[in-house]
Amino acid sequence: MVVAQQTASPVSVEKLRDAGCEVLLLGPDSSVRPHLTALLDELGRRRWTNILVEGGAGVFGSFFDQGLVDEAHVYIAPCVVGGGGPSPVGGEGVALLARAARLLDWQVEFIGADVCCRGLFTRP
Fold this sequence. Notes:
This protein is α+β, with helices and mostly antiparallel strands. The protein has helices spanning 10-18, 36-45, 57-65, and strands spanning 2-5, 23-26, 71-76, 102-111, 114-122. The protein has two domains: 1-51, no CATH class; 69-124, no CATH class.
């Protein structure tokens, strides 16, 4: 399934459908992304209880800012970008570290040279 805004290019939508994808078109939220709670409502109607959100820091940050993340698997590569480079989580973030979400029951696993940290989230 590919989720996009209702204003997505009809040509792109048709190409995805021709390739066998289901394309779910949703109205926008207050930003440029499809409305996330509408997406989760639709997936709930389909009895989907787990989804993989992959789309970069901005997409993950949108889910995270709205409190829609229960569990995360974050992969860290052995390289340092620095200089305000890409982050695994975008969005608004928190102003105080005390308000940061914490991982419970977290685990760390080495996958080749990468590290995977996964756990369940709790919010203060």
